[in-house]
Each structure stands twice: as structure tokens, then as C-alpha cells.
Amino acid sequence: MITTKEIIMNKSVFPVMVCPYTDDNKIDLNAVDALVQWYHDCGCDGIFTACLSTEIQHQTLEERVLITDRVVKKANEIASNGGRKMTIVASGHMADNFEEQVKEITSIHATGVEAVILISNRLDIANTGDENWIAELKKLMDAIPEDVVLGVYECPYPYKRLLTDKMLEYIASTKRFAFIKDTCCDAEEMAKRVKILEGSGCGLYNANAQTLLQSLRDGAAGYSGIMANFHPELYNWLCKNVDSPYADLVQSFFCMSAFTEYLAYPCTSKIYLNKNLGLPIKPYSRTKDYHLATKYHTDCIDQMEYLANHIKSIIGIK
Predict the structure, then answer these.
(1) Are 250 and 214 within 8 A, CB to CB?
(2) Which residue among 8, 117, 162, 198 is the one 20 to 30 A from 318 at the CA level?
(3) How buried is 92 (Cβ within 10 angstroms: 0-12 exposed, 13-18 middle, 19+ buried)?
(4) Residue 150 burial by CB count (10 A; 0-12/13-18/19+): exposed, middle or buried?
(5) d(Cα 247, Cα 249) in Å, to the nearest integer?
(6) Is the per-residue pLDDT at 215 higher than 60?
(7) pLDDT tens across 87-142, in order?
(8) On the CB side of 82, how many CA atoms lie within 13 Å of its CA?
(9) Residue 283: is the preceding peptide bond cis (ω within 30°)?
(10) Distance between CA 283 and CA 272 in Å, rounded?
(11) Assigned architecture for domain 9-262
(12) How far apart are CA 315 and CA 120, in angstroms?
């Protein structure tokens, strides 16, 4: 059985992968390959696919498995050709029904991902309390193979279910969890969570750029958020250089630039990846009409990129 400590690297970046589509609304597998290669070349230690940025709420289980399988295969191909081994984690956990959830988890696990990420609001869906959430988690763990390493994502869709101390204490006690995607956006709360998880093999990955540096200094394992679809090199740099004299400068850039998340994402990211970087990714999305990414939106992204490049030149990233 793989242990949690063997698969997750400390102080690392896991981009929340966007999903490229073709003109006829199919998953564009060639573009998926290009995106995985780009994440690798930017220094990312892992990828979180089949998540909200991947638009799983608008995908069939077969599609969620398809993109996850392709990401795993491409990452393995890169590693076999002398590239860095990336850790691939995935969710795809959307069903309301228990039996369907078991099918989702086992199907995603079968692709070869190193952890399957549960969505916190899919347990105790009626949000009745910690005890019922933990009871449903126990039931789910009993129904899946013991070698499935798990994680939890505080996904904001269809509603955000934040983990309580009691939930985290149970998660830590199982030694089956490796990854928490934290969306509480509260540095003090994250510091407390890190202490609860200490020694469990489970890392806390902050999704919020504005609190990233403080959370890293308090022991968070890394970053897993939207902005790694724009300038992952800078997020990788900060995760590994929290004591640099430039760390606060980079963090200040993150604080302001991350407000672009509220533009027409994920279309803005797909347009940026194609127009600015030349990746073969089209702007299509099942979440938003890509026409919502107006010239105002793309101008904002271009200005962000101009400043990101200036920051890179200051800290020595080419």
C-alpha cells in the first residue's frame, strides 16, 4: 500500500487544471497533453485535475475519467523521457448517491492517480453536522479499496462545506489522507489546521493567493489554485523561497493579481494560454460563454502578465 508520505512533496504547486475543448465540445486530448507539458516545464510538482476548474460539474463520469487518464499517461511519458515525476491527484467526485460516489472514486483511482480527492460537500449533503459527515466518510472508506489514498477539497460548488477541527482530527487519525485543498481564505485558521494535521502525512494546500505566503510560513504544504494557470513559475518560486528578501514583493503581486479570478474564468485562462503563450487551447468552456471574456478582461490579463514578467526579472526567473 502506498503511504501518504510517499506521494506528496512538500512546498509544492498543484495547478487546478482547466479543461480544453474542441470546436464540437469534446475534450481536446492533444491540448491536454500540451497543458500537462507546460505545467511540468513551469516547475509544478503536481497537477490537480478533474476539479472545479476542469468543469467536472458539466462532465459525465466517462469524461472525468478520460481527462484524468490522459493527464496520468502524459505525466508518466514526461517522466519516462527524463523529466521530473509529477504527482497527479484528481477528484471527479460529484454524485449525490452513495453507490455512484463509490463508482466515481474507484473509476478515478483506476487511472493511476496517486490520490483521489473527495469533495467536502458530497458527504452529509444536507449539512446536518460533523458526526454525520464523519460517519459517511467512514462508510465510504469501507466501500473502496484500502490502497486508495485520499484527499479533501472544500469545493465552493454547489455550496462550500468548510472542514471543522473535528473533521480534520478524524482525517488525520486515519492516515489515509494526503491532500487538503483549503478554501477557507483565513491564514489564522490555516495555521490551526496545519497543527491538527501534523504527523498525519496529510498536507494542506492553500487555494487562496492573498494568504499564501503567511500560510507557507505557518507550515502549509503548497498552493493549489486558479492563478497557477497564469504564472505557475512565480507560485513555485514562492513555495520554495519563503525566506527570500523578495518573498513579500512576490506575495504583494499575488494579492493584487489574483483578483482577476473574478473575471470570466476559466475562459480568461484559456485565452491567455493560447494568445500569450501559444498553447493549442481554444477559449471554449461549459461553465461560461467565452464571449464574456471581453477586451476589458483580456486587457486586464495582459497587464497582469506585463507585471508578472517584471517580477520574474527582479527575482531571476527567465
Answers:
(1) no
(2) 8
(3) buried
(4) buried
(5) 5
(6) yes
(7) 999 999 999 999 999 999 999 999 999 999 999 999 999 999 999 999 999 999 99
(8) 0
(9) no
(10) 9
(11) Alpha-Beta Barrel (3.20)
(12) 37
Bond before 158 cis per omega within 30 degrees: yes
Q: Is the pLDDT of residue 4 over 70?
A: no
Its pTM stands at: 0.96
| CB neighbour class for 243 (10 Å; exposed up to 12, middle 13-18, buried from 19) | exposed
pLDDT at 5 over 90: no
pLDDT for residue 9: 52
What HEC string does the chain produce? CCCHHHHCCCCEECCECCCCECCCCCECHHHHHHHHHHHHHCCCCEEEECCCCCCHHHCCHHHHHHHHHHHHHHHHHHHHCCCCCCEEEECCCCCCCHHHHHHHHHHHHCCCCCEEEEEHHHCCCCCCCHHHHHHHHHHHHHHCCCCCCEEEECCCCCCCCCCCHHHHHHHHHHCCEEEEEECCCCHHHHHHHHHHHCCCCCEEEECCHHHHHHHHHCCCCEECCHHHHCCHHHHHHHHHCCCCCCHHHHHHHHHHHHHHHHCCCCHHHHHHHHHCCCCCCCCCCCCCCHHHCCHHHHHHHHHHHHHHHHHHHHHCCC
CA 163 distance to own-chain centroid: 17
Residue position matching grid coordinates 493579481? 257
- C-alpha 306/C-alpha 308 separation (Å) is 6
Can you tell me which residue has the cell 469545493?
155
* Amino acid of residue 51: C
